[in-house]
Amino acid sequence: MNVPSFEPADYATQLMAKKNRLIELLAPFDAPEPEVFDSPLANYRLRTEFRLWREEGERHYAMFEQGDKHTPILIERFPIASPLINELMPRLKAAWQVSETLSFKLFQVEFLTTLSGEALITLAYHRPLDDAWETAAECLAAELNVNIVGRSRGKRIVVGRDYVSETLTIAGREYHYRQPEGAFTQPNGTVNQKMLGWAYDVLGERDDDLLELYCGNGNFTLPLSTRVRKVLATEISKSSVNAALANLADNGIDNVTLVRLSAEELTQALNEVRPFRRLAGIDLKSYAFGSVFVDPPRAGMDPDTCELTRRFDRILYISCNPETLAQNIAQLQDTHRIVRCALFDQFPWTHHMESGVLLERR
């Protein structure tokens, strides 16, 4: 097993290696030197997932090397996870050790926490959940002061709420986010806050409109909406759309129209390839788009969506995969150039990196 180094003295070396890798990938496009945003060295991860492994009559938290489902790494504490996750882990384990109702056929545990101190625990089972389980889960939720979601095949029971509330501060303003169970959220809250601040600064104060693709739960939408006249945002995940709508309402933001469309579908709509009922009542031609913001999945933008972004004077791109970022920029480089770029160390002690670029029309 290849165990990464967690020595603080090694962190600067690892971060420099990521910076050099990003510089190398963006070198063909004459990119400026990236701004670098580091991570706390421990307790930075706000969500994590464990399988359970039964040994000597007890269930233990476990992780596995990729591709190996038979050699568990038993976990008692998890230093990269938030302090709240580390506090809850032994208390939850003690609870299932003494409760057959909670432990029977329990095979996976997920923790979702926030910088603001909330927690949700998901318990997944290979058996139907009944009233006895729900009663035990209610007692456990009260004891741990958490929300609990129980999952089994075809069933989902919520004890408390099925989301946590996060508060992030960007440019002196607090934004409140609902983060639903099972939906994507940024795992490193401290670096996410830095990333939002960078995007807010880079977009700048605008007197035109913003198109946002892949908006998720509105992580970027909320602060960026204060920099422009109005926003048209798209997202395909129903749970993320519902969370984003709640977040816009909770923060009193009324200049955003959110549509449940994929980036590919919106591209077809803007190209007038086909109409969409979900766009009924929305006059796309009323928008004066000056910038487009994209935060695509690891595969990057598909070629048609990438071609769509070429129409905009400014492209603000956040990427979780620098290789596909470079591929997309290669498609755009004849009309756009990189004027700002950044490295966000969302995943310290790993080779993964988050990056951002601002491209402007040549």
Question: Which descriptors would you attach to this protein?
Answer:
362 residues, alpha/beta, Rossmann fold, OB fold (Dihydrolipoamide Acetyltransferase, E2P), 2 domains, 8-stranded mixed beta sheet, 7-stranded mixed beta sheet, 10 helices, globular
Describe what this molecule looks like in 3D.
By secondary structure, the protein is an alpha/beta fold. It has two domains: 6-39 and 186-359, Vaccinia Virus protein VP39 (Rossmann fold, 3-Layer(aba) Sandwich), CATH 3.40.50.150; 46-162, OB fold (Dihydrolipoamide Acetyltransferase, E2P), CATH 2.40.50.1070. Helix content is 31%, strand content 29%. The protein has ten helices and 17 strands. The strands form three sheets. The chain has an eight-stranded mixed beta sheet with strand order 1-16-17-15-14-11-12-13, sandwiched between helices. A seven-stranded mixed beta sheet has the order 4-3-2-5-6-7-8, covered by helices on one side. Strands 9-10 form a two-stranded antiparallel sheet. The chain starts with 7 loop residues before the first helix and ends with a strand. The mean pLDDT is 94.
